[in-house]
Structures are given as C-alpha cells and as structure tokens.
C-alpha cells in the first residue's frame, strides 16, 4: 500500500527489512531471539564468535552479542567488528554484570540476561533509529547507556566508581556542543518508542480479538489510549446505499457507532479517495480547528474492509501516516482471519454457486487447452499472497502441462504430485490469473472448482454475516465472465467430540497414540521445543527413526480423519438445508445478511435464475 500526503503526492515507503545478527553460544536463547525478531527483521544466527565474524557483512544493521563465549569471546568479536569498520550498532547481551571496564568498549547498548521479548525487540528498534544519527550523537547515547547501567549498580560493587564522574563530564561536554541536535534526537527516540509501543499493543489486541467488531473496537481504543491522538474510528462503505457507516470508535470528536457519513461530508470524499487509490490520505477535519485526520484503508490483499480514521492535533507526519498504513494492513489481515475462522464455528454459512467460463482464469484455460476436465482438490494459502492449488487434470500428459505452465508469470512453481494413467495431480503455486486468489483473500471456503472444455462451476462458502455482493463484485472485476447462479444457507454440521475421538482411537494404533500423547506432553510440538525427538524416543524406549515413523503415521491419520469429517459435515449441512422449507430457512437466517431471499432451487422446487439471484443480492 502506498502513502499519500494531503495533496495526493506519494510518499516513499521504507527500505527492505533491517538485518540483525544474533551471536550467542546458548543455542536455545539464540533461536528464541530469532523467533521473536523474524517477523519484522532479516535475522542471522551465529553460535560462536568465529561464526559471527564469518556471518557479518555490510548488510547487517544490528548485532546482539554475548560476551562470555568459548573460543573467541564477545569482547574480542566487538573489537574485530570495529577494526573492520563495520557500520552496525552493537548491543552486548550477556549474563556478565557490567563493571567500569565496559567504558572503553565500543558498543551501543548493554542488556543483562535474562531478557524477554520486549527487551530484545525494543533494543533492536531503538538501535536502528540511533543508526541514523551522526557519530558524535551516537557516542552521546552510547555513553548515556553506560552511565545508566553503572548507576544502577551499587557503587561498592564497581571496580572504579570514579569512572562515573568522568562519564558525566563527557556527557556534559558532548551535550554542550550538540545540545539542539541531541534534544531533537531525544524527541525522535521518544517518538519511535511510542510508535513501536503502539504497534506492539495493536498486535496484542489483534491476537486476542475473536470477532470483527472486537478487533475494530480494540484498535480504536489502543490508538486513543496512547494519549497522542484525539479520536479513532472505523468506517465501512455500503455499496447499495452509497454511504459510509461508523462501526467502531474511541476518543472524542468521532461519529457515533452506527451513524452514517454521507458522500456530501468532506471526510467521506477523502475516505473514498483512500479506498480508490489504496493509499493513506490526510484531510482537515474542521477549518476552525488545527486538526488533521489520517485515513488508512483496512485491507487484506484484494479484500477491502473499510478505513481507519485517526484525528491528530496539528499536522500528520509522513512517519505517522506510514504507521497507520501498517496498522490498517494488520487489522485487515486479522479481520480476514476471523472471518475465515467463523466458517469453522458457526452453525450456518452462505453458499454461493457460480458459472465460470472466464478463460482469464488459468484453470479454465487449461480445460480448453487440453479439452478435458480440470478440478481443484485442495488449497493451501500462504502469508505472502501465494495460493498452492492441488489440481487434477484428466488424461493430459504431465510433461506437456508443465511445459505450458513454466513460462507463465501467474504460476511461480508447478510440480507433479501423482501421475496416474487416467489423471495427474499437480501442485500449482498461484500468484495471479485465478479466481481462487480473491476467494481465499475474502476468507471464503472453496468447496469445488471444476471446469470441462471451458465450462466451469465454482461453489464457495462464506460466513453468514458476510456481504455476498462485495465478494461477487470483487471477483467479477477481474473475471467478468463469472456469473452467480445460486445462493443458499447451509448448516455447518459437526461431529460430536466423543464420536470423533472414537473414530481416531479406531484408526490409530496403540503405539501411535502413545507417541502422539508423549510428544505433546513433553513439549515436542512447542517452539522452541521443550524436548527433542531423541529425548522423546528415549522416554518411549524406541529409536528416533521409529519415533518419527509412528509420529508421521499418526499425524497423517489425524489430518485425514479431520478433513474427511469437515467434508462430510458440509455435505450433510447442504443436504439438510435443501430439504428444509423456505419458511424454516427464513426463520434461521440473519435478516441483515438477506440470505433468505436466495434459498437454492432445491428448496423451492424451481431453478433460481441468474437474474433472480442478482436481484436478491442487490
């Protein structure tokens, strides 16, 4: 997503993720730090001083360095890094209590173990900001860090307490020559801490939220509770009524929840612009008050859920705009996740059927190219926008299919999974040119996609509170030859826990059950692992390869049983709905979703025409 200022000018986004090198002979701690940091940084890990010197290069921005390591110590590594003129910030991360000897060490920060996730992430974030300062200012903050560390220790425990006086003198001298710059940088660091704290808080509330309303409300509250923003609210666009509605709010001078923001409102115009351009916009809220509204789209890939509007006293910096750009993305991702989960737990869902003859979709095009049937057997979406589709193509030569697919930019990888005489199962990693991508992005469950000689059908399920028209419009914007043919409510029947348990106990051997239970109890499935495979195998009195064999067999049976049950439950849910009366369907449907008008043809003993379905959706 791009960022724009109030005049519509694009603001450049940040450079690629910064790089962090973790150096510690404690492998568990090093791996844990890598786990904490890897979502936001490019992380390298070295388990010794020598390995650190081999891993370092000019791309590394921050080093987390243990002092006490066998062989080459952390102090020696630090000296070597400075001798080689690597321009990286270094934080010593060690159990060695600091003493006055650290004054002559060229590090930027000192962390005393044990450390937690916030210690590590906060230090890396601050050192990245300090890395932008000029040398004399960086020296000031490094000295200030040393003064703080040593002051926190009892002076009787220090080898030479008079060093503290010398440090204070140096700090006063540096501040006297760089006072205005240092004050400015202190404000910059304070602001960076506040921003990073806000992002961490938002991440925390997004993890805890279980519904869209909870997520939207929690984000607004988190923003206002920082004390830096007057108000925050979420706007959703109603395509039928052509107005925005406030769905959640916090703070002052915000619309009431449920109130409409019509197109004549100046803020509505900015919201529309932000959504249209998929970019952050700023707008003046009131010509008589020095307030600015930051408007950030709430999106996930092609799915748009609304906007986050935040009121700032004064002007909004490009940094703030980028932060709320990021928050909008994170909120959109979380909404998509809870919408998808709702399909698993709700008693009912909306099922949509489409006629799909659009050869812009690579799967439909394949059915034409090979004059055969193409069907999707399964999907596996990833966080980076790739959808792995497991596709069966009847009667086509596997090598010919791969040769045709290899030059296509829409498929980053294709491979044969199984090759039978009558059909071949392929894994296609899709990034474009398939209706599967927008369907997955909206949190839809794709029940089936089958195309034969260019004539295809798609069946999907979406949560009962979803707006089917939004989904259909998004699909048809890229694939105009897709038409909706049916819409119905279906029950999400699920097997009882006891029944599912009995089924598993029937198919799992005693040894497989023992292996799975022991692995779970011993923390083998945790990360970092509480027990290794070798340790679990030893406790069971079996060899590690035997443990892995039983574990994989048990996991495979567990997954097959689970997904077979999901398929069975969905089929049972559809059958139950199709034999129910129209009145029953209307009784159980949520009137806000307006699905009752779209009960399928089997319910009403007549075919629902395309025009009737479209009328119902509108």
TrEMBL record:
It comes from the Archaea. Keywords: Phosphoprotein, Transcription, Transcription regulation. It holds the Pfam family HalX. Residues 604-618 have a biased composition (Polar residues). This is Receiver/bat box HTH-10 family transcription regulator. Residues 19-128 form the Response regulatory domain. PROSITE patterns: RESPONSE_REGULATORY (PS50110). Residues 569-618 are annotated as: Disordered. The modification 4-aspartylphosphate is found at residue 66. Coiled coil: none annotated. Gene3D superfamilies: 3.40.50.2300. The lineage of its organism: Archaea, Methanobacteriati, Methanobacteriota, Stenosarchaea group, Halobacteria. Residues 592-603 have a biased composition (Acidic residues). It comes from Haloquadratum walsbyi (strain DSM 16854 / JCM 12705 / C23). GO terms for biological process: phosphorelay signal transduction system.
């Amino acid at each position: 997503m791009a960022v724009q200022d109030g005049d519509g000018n694009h603001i450049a986004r940040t450079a690629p993720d910064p790089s962090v090198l973790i150096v510690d002979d404690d492998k568990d701690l090093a791996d844990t730090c890598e786990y904490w940091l890897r979502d936001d940084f490019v992380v390298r890990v070295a388990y010794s001083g020598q390995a650190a010197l081999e891993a370092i290069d000019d791309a590394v921005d921050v080093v987390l360095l243990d002092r006490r390591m066998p062989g080459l110590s952390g102090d020696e590594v630090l000296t070597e890094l400075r001798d080689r003129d690597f321009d990286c910030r270094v934080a010593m991360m060690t159990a060695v209590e600091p003493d006055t000897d650290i004054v002559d060490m060229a590090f930027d920060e000192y962390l005393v173990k044990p450390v937690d996730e916030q210690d590590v992430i906060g230090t890396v974030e601050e050192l990245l900001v300090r890395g932008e300062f000029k040398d004399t200012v960086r020296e000031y903050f490094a000295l200030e860090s040393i003064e703080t560390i040593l002051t926190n220790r009892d002076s009787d425990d220090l080898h030479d307490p008079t060093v503290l006086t010398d440090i204070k003198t140096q700090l006063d001298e540096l501040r006297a020559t760089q006072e205005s710059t240092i004050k400015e940088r202190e404000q910059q660091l304070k602001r960076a801490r506040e921003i990073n704290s806000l992002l961490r808080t938002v991440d925390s509330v997004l993890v805890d939220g279980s519904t869209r309303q909870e997520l939207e409300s929690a984000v607004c509250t988190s923003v206002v509770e920082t004390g830096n923003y007057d108000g925050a609210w979420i706007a959703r666009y109603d395509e039928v009524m052509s107005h925005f509605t406030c769905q959640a709010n916090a703070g002052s001078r915000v619309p009431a929840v449920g109130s409409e923001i019509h197109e004549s409102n100046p803020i509505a115009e900015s919201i529309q612009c932000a959504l249209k351009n998929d970019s952050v916009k700023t707008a003046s809220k009131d010509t008589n008050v020095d307030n600015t509204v930051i408007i950030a789209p709430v999106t996930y890939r092609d799915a748009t859920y609304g906007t986050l509007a935040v009121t700032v006293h004064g002007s909004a910096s490009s940094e703030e705009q980028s932060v709320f750009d990021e928050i909008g993305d994170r909120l959109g991702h979380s909404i998509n996740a809870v919408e998808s989960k709702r399909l698993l737990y709700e008693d009912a869902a909306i099922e949509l059927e489409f006629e799909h003859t659009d050869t812009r979709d690579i799967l439909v095009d394949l059915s034409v190219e090979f004059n055969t049937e193409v069907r999707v057997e399964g999907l596996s979406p990833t966080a980076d926008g790739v959808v792995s589709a497991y596709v069966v193509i009847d009667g086509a030569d596997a090598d010919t299919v791969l040769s045709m697919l290899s030059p296509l930019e829409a498929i980053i990888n294709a491979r044969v999974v199984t090759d039978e005489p009558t059909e071949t199962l392929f894994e296609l990693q899709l990034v474009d040119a398939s209706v599967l991508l927008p369907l997955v992005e909206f949190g839809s469950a794709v029940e089936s996609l089958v195309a034969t000689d260019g004539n295809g059908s798609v069946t999907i399920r979406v949560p009962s509170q979803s707006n089917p028209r939004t989904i259909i419009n998004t699909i048809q914007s890229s694939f105009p030859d897709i038409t909706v043919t049916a819409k119905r409510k279906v029950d999400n029947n699920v097997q009882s826990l006891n029944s599912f348990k009995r089924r598993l106990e029937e198919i799992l051997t005693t040894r497989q059950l023992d292996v799975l239970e022991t692995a779970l109890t011993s923390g083998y499935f945790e990360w970092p692992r509480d027990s290794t495979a070798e340790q679990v195998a030893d406790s069971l009195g079996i060899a590690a390869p035997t443990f892995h064999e039983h574990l994989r067999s048990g996991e495979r049976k567990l997954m097959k049983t689970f997904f077979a049950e999901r398929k069975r439950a969905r089929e049972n849910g559809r059958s139950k709905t199709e034999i129910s009366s129209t009145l029953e369907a209307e009784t159980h449907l949520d009137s806000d979703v307006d699905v009752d008008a779209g009960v399928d043809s089997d319910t009403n003993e007549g075919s629902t025409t395309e025009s009737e379905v479209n009328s119902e959706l509108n």
